[in-house]
Amino acid sequence: MTGSNKVIAVYGATGNQGRALALSLLKSKQGFKVRAITRNPGSEKAQELASLGAEVVKADGWNEADMKAALAGVWGFWLNTHHHDPVVHVPGGPTDEDLGRKLVDISADAGVKVFIYSTCESPTEFSGGKTPVPGMDAKHRVELYARERKEFDSVIGAFPGWYFENFITPEYTKAFGGFPMFPDEEGIYTFTTPLVGGEGRVQTISVADDFGEMLHGMFLDPMRFKNQTIQCLGDAFTYEELVKEFTKVSGKPARYVPMESYEVMPTYGSTVLVELQQIYHWTQWNGGLFFGRPDDFDTCHNLKTEARKDKGLEPEPLTDLHKYFTEHFGQK
Ligand SMILES: NC(=O)c1ccc[n+]([C@@H]2O[C@H](COP(=O)([O-])OP(=O)(O)OC[C@H]3O[C@@H](n4cnc5c(N)ncnc54)[C@H](OP(=O)(O)O)[C@@H]3O)[C@@H](O)[C@H]2O)c1
Description:
By secondary structure, the chain is of the alpha/beta class. The protein has a single domain (3-329), classed as Rossmann fold. Helices cover 39% and strands 17% of the residues. The chain has a 7-stranded parallel sheet, with helices on both faces. It has a 3-stranded mixed sheet with strand order 7-9-11. The protein has a two-stranded parallel ribbon with strand order 8-12. NADP nicotinamide-adenine-dinucleotide phosphate (NAP) binds at residues 12, 14-18, 38-40, 43, 60-62, 80, 82-85, 160, 162-163, 166. InterPro entries: NAD(P)-bd_dom_sf, NmrA-like, NmrA-like_oxidored.
């Protein structure tokens, strides 16, 4: 199959990660055909992708017949299941891992050749069981399971860091004191979290600006990354640097107030926040390294550059804190 007739199916094409990939692939000069999978083809985001040339296909990941049809004739498959979807947290019900394994099987049986999965490393494995993060451990197991399916020519795990987008999402910002969206009662934009550990740098990525292009880069050269887990980040900075940068670009007062320990972080019954507690425990144990390993910016930048080349665009640096915050919070 040449680039011009390769079909790439994008699961979660209307979500943060999938949409970023679909938008980048739609500008590829290879002529990839983008098949956008959604449960609701009539949504604004699905319609936007259709207007840009994607084939929008209605399918529910839990429906085997839907997924078989959606994956027919597909060369490359991007899979990102949302492990905080309430349906995978019903006691006794199917889990995110069950869904991931099922979709691995359906895609392998359908003849998919390149399987790229939104993954995590396993904190349990790294720490010898001392700092489990069950949601991350489960994604890691799905990636390993996919590598066992010999029908795939290449299986790649793409492991995104903390989203820059969380800083423009009210639910996230409210969980950490309101910074950088809502001032506290003293008029200060206060960020309060447990400490990351080690040098205190938090590995962060702009999904919209960088992650989609990194994934596009993986689809351009899948054999090069076969059986690898690629950490995806654009910058890493401390929380002190974060609040200082906000004040610098916005002119507004901000401060970082560390929590005494990860255990005192309020979770309000949210599975996302419970997992974040576990993640702080993990990164504190692992010297601040969320990915398990030291940061690798070169691979990220090379992947982005290859994707941009494929779109006829000049290379660009990865999106860093200064760029992201200037764009979203800078004084106009
Ligand atoms: N926030 C962070 O800092 C961070 C960092 C790393 C990883 N993550 C992980 O990223 C994942 C979330 O990804 P995201 O941000 O791209 O999510 P998102 O924006 O909420 O998008 C989820 C997508 O999944 C699709 N979807 C949901 N259920 C489906 C089903 N049953 N069948 C088919 N499609 C379905 C939705 O499509 P339709 O509604 O159109 O069907 C939607 O496009 C989570 O596992 C999260 O933990 C987050």
